[in-house]
Amino acid sequence: QVIDATSLSWGTRVKGFIACFAIGCLCSLLGSCLLWIPKKGLMLFAVFYTLGNIASIGSTLFLMGPVKQLKRMFEPTRLIATTVMLLCLILTLCSAFWWHKQGLALLFCILQFFALAWYSISFIPFARDAVKKCFAVCLS
């Protein structure tokens, strides 16, 4: 249905997904390298890491299409992870630019990572249950 509703072929969609995802990974990696620059490093890290996550999430728009992606993001099983992830994206940038709190920016980047990971594994059947069981075994 998605292929019929767009002018992009499936091959073009896959290439768009790969390119956007690669740009996201590159931005996140670049942000990690910039973290060590004195004074502005954490701000640059927060920006590039956040842009990398946005590009990575955006890459799935090529595969599913924007409407279906938004519907799936806000399904009840993903609502909390999506909300936390989007909130952390915003709070990371606020911490870096407006509040100038480096510790908060770093904390929100870490929360971004975990929220994005939890969101991502929600697309894999039974993955969340497996992760919960692994943590239950490790903690007991």
TrEMBL record:
GO biological process: protein transport; vesicle-mediated transport
Pfam families in UniProt: Got1
Topology within the bilayer: Multi-pass membrane protein
One Gene Ontology cellular component annotation held by this UniProt entry: membrane
Primary residence: membrane
UniProt-annotated location(s): Membrane
Protein transport recorded as keyword: yes
Membrane listed as a keyword: yes
Keywords annotated in UniProt: Membrane, Protein transport, Transmembrane, Transmembrane helix, Transport
TM spans (from-to): 16-37, 43-67, 79-99, 105-126
Function: May be involved in fusion of retrograde transport vesicles derived from an endocytic compartment with the Golgi complex.
Family: Belongs to the SFT2 family.
Protein name: Vesicle transport protein
Lineage: Eukaryota, Metazoa, Chordata, Craniata, Vertebrata
